[in-house]
Inverse folding.
């Protein structure tokens, strides 16, 4: 019954689409078995029990993904990197034990690329960018990224990570976390408070009542900035006596001594004259600002504790959103009373576990990545297909948890994957040529420190502008220009034609079907089905006789397939 | 059962919606940057700032990067002496009595009734990038915000009602650089740079026309992709990806590509435009005007930053500028398109009226933003006039100064865009298309005398 329904819902629209697009013959039905596993969902962990129970009550029976889907998904989500053909072969050939997938996760969490990939995600949040509009400047951007990456590689406890960002003082070159207060466009106390709320409380201060923001801003009213005689060095410090130039007057880009730009918006404000003496925690408690204690420390003490209603909750939600593709509160940085969690018990459970682990981020990753929920299939079931235009949000979005959400690969991950497949690389540059922006040719895009170092590809495919630090600053929505680039640009075509790796596959002394198989393992991280082999084998004009050009076209089709372009 | 996900009419509507959301107009230049919500709200508001009955539908901007000498071209001073005229002391009379051009413009002199010359353009800035920023945005460089260029502003305001296949803001062929792009509007408003060379046997427009791939192979590939896309076929939620891919293919295999196919033009007409890159760029620009592309930039293929070898460079480049620009104006006029198309041509500044004979320049001209010339035509600008004047040597504004806000404000006004409309800033910062005149932002008023 399920199968026949599925044919009605899947195949029919498929044929319509195909006929609308081109005059090709209708395609053979894709094999669900390629993407899904027959293994039943078990409820070993608490995450699984919570989610599967909720889905049960809605009558939804989730299905697990296949091993081939899992290895690709796990690599992309854990280390932002595509598995190689060899890695795929080994994983698929390994005995099908219950721990097979969990062992893979454990191996991935120890990889070097883990730190690269998550430093990239954090750099979006922390706005690590040398030039406009953040203007950290190249040296500081590198120092900041290095600190973030090292913290991740060492698995620094998250409470410590946050405390260092919130309370450090010193040079932007030498005490890298002070750059947190520099990487804000609006360096008024309100602007800084907004950045803190977004980063560590998952809350957008522009939706707050004004007095709440003012109360919190007071904690950041003693942040001082001053230049040094070293080029583009800047000291961030606790400034109770107000010795520094007014932060608000300190226009980005004026870290050069003696050059302070004026700001129109500050004409009436004169916040420098009347600085607040009372600060108010977002919970309502008031505290006096004294000359003895850095108020940033007072704020950090309030924020970073187990009972704080924002701190742990916002980070577990952020990590869930990063890995599973959709926050329990979504967008992940928009906690509001009128934006409820899809599954409050799950959020509370993750929060509790995270606090119990002493803010151990890696064990949080491990917990989520090892769950069955993470392994849910991305294929819509027949019921969802018929409702595809209106995803069911009635049940607080819990129903959406039944499927791993399909998302296009991030710009950096996508180009790294294309380069890995073809054995090519890209050039990344900054508009401002400086020594710190020199990038070796084999640098991977996920490891780029500075958001100002870029390429046309990264810009086109929606890499975060790192201007606000908001989660939706990264944009993976498709636009035609991206298709023009993937389908038909000289950039991609040159990679396919000149890249040594694809050529090696095609010039190897092996049967054509072996070559196709190797392409599938390299690009889609799985073996082709018999049907797919047939399609590929019949592509050359002289059936079965491959020219190099045919190899390019088949590779081209695979990298332009949904299966390659998307996490699924 | 009767709720077919791919019901054609539904699909059609939602595809259009997708495009509205995902892009400007049908093809949308580039991806969108972040903070969509606010941007859309402001975009929606911006629709009100556009008059639909505006005269100018399209703009062609010919940008002479580096800065072209005004003395040697459109503001000749034949009596100023050799220190000023250098090697070009001759002038040509035009078909408008009383108006003369430098000796290098035999073709343009026959079209003078179609354009007006501003000879009192001024901003006083002598740095390439800062001056270019001024001429492209109207805003003073060094402010906290990086404003979008005039093309990006057109893309924002006019792109909404434009549903052509070609992106709304196109640059032939290479982008102008970082001070003439989308500013804070985000990468969605970046210009689409064609790449390639329209004077080559095949104009290889990046992403649209691939150099070594025949149409047959292109079609075979597309069929192969459709057959091999097993997962995509099961994913109705990826409809916008499919819709945008179809849009891309309309460019690659459909009508879009034809716009760039100059072999469809008469050989004689192609000769008239000139068989060089600039001439053929002008011809492509006209073809884009016919499809309604709101803003087209021809980034002149060759620099005008003639500190050295000034006179040689002028002898080489000006005849091509003369031929291409004259042919464009005449052709647009013949086809009745000039009334709805603004053509403007200028560098970021002029060049020193006094020749630098001394080493190391040995006969060059330096940057000069104090006074220079701009050509404007069509779209509501009257032809045959001269606005303002420089002094006897071309060193200062003698009468009627025209500042960047005046020039850009006039272009916006003719296109029906309110020059002081609000721009959507991702952080909600108050920002306008052009700054209000003030002590620092000087204005001589819109070019009403020729509008």
């Amino acid at each position: 019954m399920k199968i026949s329904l599925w044919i009605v819902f899947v195949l029919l629209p498929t044929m319509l689409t195909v006929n609308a697009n081109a005059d090709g013959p209708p395609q053979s039905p894709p094999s669900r078995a390629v993407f899904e596993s027959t293994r039943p969902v078990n409820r070993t962990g608490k995450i699984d029990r919570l989610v599967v129970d909720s889905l049960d009550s809605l009558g939804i029976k989730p299905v697990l993904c296949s091993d081939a889907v899992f290895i690709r998904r796990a690599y992309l989500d854990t280390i932002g990197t595509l598995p190689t053909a060899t890695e795929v072969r080994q994983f698929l050939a390994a005995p099908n034990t219950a721990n097979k997938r969990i062992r893979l996760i454990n191996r991935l969490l120890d990889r070097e690329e883990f730190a690269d990939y998550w430093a990239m995600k954090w750099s979006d949040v922390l706005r690590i960018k040398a030039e406009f509009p953040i203007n950290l400047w190249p040296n500081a951007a590198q120092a900041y990224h290095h600190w973030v990456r090292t913290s991740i590689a060492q698995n620094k406890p998250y409470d410590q990570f946050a405390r260092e960002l919130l309370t450090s003082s010193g040079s932007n070159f030498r005490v890298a976390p002070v750059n947190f207060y520099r990487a804000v466009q609006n360096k008024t106390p309100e602007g800084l408070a907004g950045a803190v709320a977004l980063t560590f409380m998952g809350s957008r201060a522009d939706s707050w009542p004004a007095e709440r923001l003012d109360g919190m801003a007071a904690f950041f009213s003693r942040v001082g900035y001053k230049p040094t005689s070293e080029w583009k060095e800047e000291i961030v410090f606790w400034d109770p006596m107000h010795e520094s130039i007014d932060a608000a007057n300190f226009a980005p880009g004026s870290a050069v001594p003696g050059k302070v730009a004026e700001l129109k918006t500050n004409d009436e404000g004169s916040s420098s004259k009347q600085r607040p003496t009372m600060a108010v925690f977002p919970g309502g408690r008031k505290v006096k600002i004294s000359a003895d204690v850095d108020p940033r420390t007072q704020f950090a003490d309030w924020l970073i504790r187990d009972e704080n209603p924002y701190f742990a909750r916002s980070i577990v939600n952020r990590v869930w959103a990063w890995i599973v593709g959709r926050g329990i509160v979504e967008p992940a940085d928009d906690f509001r009373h009128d934006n409820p969690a899809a599954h409050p018990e799950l959020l509370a459970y993750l929060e509790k576990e995270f606090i119990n682990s002493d803010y151990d981020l890696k064990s949080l990753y491990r917990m989520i990545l090892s769950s069955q929920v993470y392994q849910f299939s991305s294929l819509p079931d027949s019921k969802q297909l018929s409702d595809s235009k209106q995803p069911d949000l009635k049940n607080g979005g819990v129903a959406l948890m039944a499927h791993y959400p399909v998302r296009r690969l991030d710009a950096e991950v996508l180009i790294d994957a294309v380069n890995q497949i073809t054995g090519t690389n890209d050039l990344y540059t900054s508009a401002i040529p400086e020594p710190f922006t020199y990038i070796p040719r084999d640098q991977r895009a996920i490891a780029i420190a500075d958001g100002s170092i870029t390429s046309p590809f990264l810009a086109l495919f929606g890499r975060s502008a790192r201007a606000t630090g908001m989660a939706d600053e990264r944009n993976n929505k498709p636009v035609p220009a991206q298709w023009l680039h993937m389908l038909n640009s000289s950039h991609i075509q040159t990679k396919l034609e000149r890249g040594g790796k694809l050529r090696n596959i095609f010039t190897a002394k092996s049967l054509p079907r072996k070559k196709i198989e190797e392409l599938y393992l390299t690009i889609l991280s799985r073996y082709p089905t018999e049907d797919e082999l047939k399609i590929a084998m019949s592509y050359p004009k002289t059936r079965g006789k491959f020219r190099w050009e045919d190899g390019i076209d088949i590779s081209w089709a695979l990298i332009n397939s949904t299966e390659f372009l998307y996490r699924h | 059962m009767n709720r077919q996900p791919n019901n054609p009419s539904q699909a059609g509507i939602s595809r259009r919606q997708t495009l509205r959301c995902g892009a400007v107009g049908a093809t949308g230049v580039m991806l969108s940057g972040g903070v969509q919500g606010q941007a859309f709200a402001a975009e929606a508001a911006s629709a009100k700032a556009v008059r639909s009955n505006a005269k100018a539908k399209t703009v062609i901007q010919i940008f002479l990067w580096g800065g072209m000498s005004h003395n040697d071209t459109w503001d000749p001073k034949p009596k100023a002496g050799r220190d000023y005229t250098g090697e070009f002391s001759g002038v040509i009379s035009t078909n408008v009595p009383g108006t003369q051009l430098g000796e290098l413009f035999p073709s343009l002199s026959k079209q003078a009734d179609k354009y007006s010359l501003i000879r009192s353009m001024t901003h006083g800035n002598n740095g390439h990038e800062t001056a270019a920023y001024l001429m492209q945005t109207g805003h003073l460089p060094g402010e906290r915000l990086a404003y979008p260029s005039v093309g990006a502003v057109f893309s924002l305001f006019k792109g909404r009602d434009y549903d052509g296949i070609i992106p709304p803001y196109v640059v032939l062929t290479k982008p102008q650089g970082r001070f003439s792009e989308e500013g804070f509007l985000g990468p969605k408003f970046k210009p689409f740079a064609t790449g390639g060379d329209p004077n080559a046997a095949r104009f290889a427009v990046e992403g649209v026309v691939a150099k070594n791939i025949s149409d047959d192979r292109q079609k075979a590939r597309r069929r192969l992709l459709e057959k091999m896309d097993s997962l995509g076929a099961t994913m109705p939620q990826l409809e916008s990806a499919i819709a945008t891919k179809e849009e891309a293919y309309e460019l690659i295999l459909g009508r879009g590509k034809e716009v760039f196919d100059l072999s469809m033009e008469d050989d004689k007409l192609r000769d008239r435009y000139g068989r060089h890159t600039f001439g053929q760029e002008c011809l492509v620009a006209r073809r884009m005007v016919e499809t309604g592309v709101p803003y087209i930039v021809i980034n002149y293929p060759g620099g005008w930053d003639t500190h050295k070898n000034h006179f040689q460079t002028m002898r080489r480049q000006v005849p091509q500028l003369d031929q291409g620009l004259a042919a464009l104006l005449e052709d647009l006029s013949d086809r009745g398109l000039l009334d709805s198309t603004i053509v403007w041509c200028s560098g970021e500044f002029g060049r020193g009226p006094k020749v630098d004979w001394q080493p190391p320049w040995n006969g060059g001209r330096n940057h000069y933003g104090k006074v220079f010339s701009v050509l404007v035509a069509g779209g509501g600008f009257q032809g045959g006039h001269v606005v303002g004047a420089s002094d006897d040597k071309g060193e200062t504004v003698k009468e009627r100064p025209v500042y960047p806000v005046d020039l850009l404000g006039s272009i916006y006004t003719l296109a029906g865009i309110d020059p002081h409309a609000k721009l959507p800033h991702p952080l909600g910062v108050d920002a306008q298309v052009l700054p209000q005149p003030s002590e620092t932002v000087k204005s001589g008023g819109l070019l009403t005398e020729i509008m």
Observations:
- Residues 1-29, 247-273, 385-392 of chain A have pLDDT under 50 and may be disordered.
- The radius of gyration of chain A is 26 Å.
